[in-house]
Design a protein that fits this description.
The protein is an all-beta fold and about 80 residues long. Helix content is about 0%, strand content about 55%. It has one domain.
């Protein structure tokens, strides 16, 4: 899946009770600890996580490694 890389500085959702999320549209690679790799595209990001569109689901609570590119360097978490 190929996504156009876009960065935004405004919150993706604007509600007082929601955690601030920021639009982030970049290609992402997800490496589950159980094996295999998934490619997709991010939707938004917050202090607590990343929302992404994937072709296959990752199990809730599964530990994964995320890889994506920001303007100045690649990120792996």
């Amino acid at each position: 899946m190929e996504a156009q890389n876009q960065f935004a500085t405004s919150p993706a959702r604007d509600t007082p009770d929601a955690q601030a999320r920021f639009r982030l549209e970049v290609d992402i690679r997800i490496n589950p600890k159980t094996g295999g790799a998934l490619k997709g595209a991010t939707v938004d990001i917050s202090e607590y996580g990343v929302s992404a569109l994937l072709k296959l689901a990752v199990s809730l609570g599964e530990f994964v490694e995320l890889q994506f590119m920001l303007p100045y360097r690649p990120v792996t978490v």
